[in-house]
Amino acid sequence: MSIASRRIETCSGIGSSRFSVLGRRFKKGAVIAALGGIIALAGCTTPQSGRYFVLAPAASQSKVQSGVVKAVLGVGPISFPSHLDRAQLVLRTGQNELYLRENDKWAEPLRETARRVLMQDLQDRLAPKRMEAFPWNSRDGVDWQIAVDVSNFEAQPDRTVRLNAQWKIIDASSGEVVLSNQFDQRIKPASADSADIVAAMSVLWGRFADNISTAFIRS
Question: 0.90 exceeded by the pTM?
Answer without folding.
Answer: no
